[in-house]
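Researcher: Here's a chain I'd like modeled. Treat it as a single chain, no partners, no ligands.
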Amino acid sequence: MRRLLGLGSLFAAVVLFVPSSAHAQASVWIGGGATVPTGDFSDYAKTGWMAGLGLNYALGDQGLWIGGSGFYGSNKHETSGEKTNLYGGLAAVGYRVGDQSKAGVFFFGNVGVMNHEFDDGTTKDGSSKLAYGGGAGVDVPLADKINLWFAGQYLQRAKEDGEHTAIFGIFAGVSIALGSNDGM
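Model: Modeled as a single isolated chain. Structure tokens:
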């Protein structure tokens, strides 16, 4: 939990202290959805949930962007009372196709750290490893500076003891552009 609070604090600091000229090309997002375990993780984990928040920066006006995010999720196990909590932070690079004022498609890849925490109701044990993945989605403008988005993402943690944790998620959320449209 302390790591999640640390990620949230870092996120808040970046949003509050980024120079105003950069705000014109920044957006904050929040979302969540269902996660389906894949690979070894699917041998014992059930479909779960994940939520995240992040900050993206446009690199010019051609659709290329970079970003950072934090996430937290949980998957119950086949064994009653057991679950795995997944949390961490990711850096991303992505590309959005088309006119920003209209519905469009985006693609992204990410790398970071994922913690896999086993919880049997009395004991928690976890470790952090490299995580990587990617996905695609669509976004739809709802109002000035506000977009609704839907995305599919594959995320995998590096192997530990011959096993890996991997999920495929279906997510939805909103993004809000920061700053003014004219860069002021």
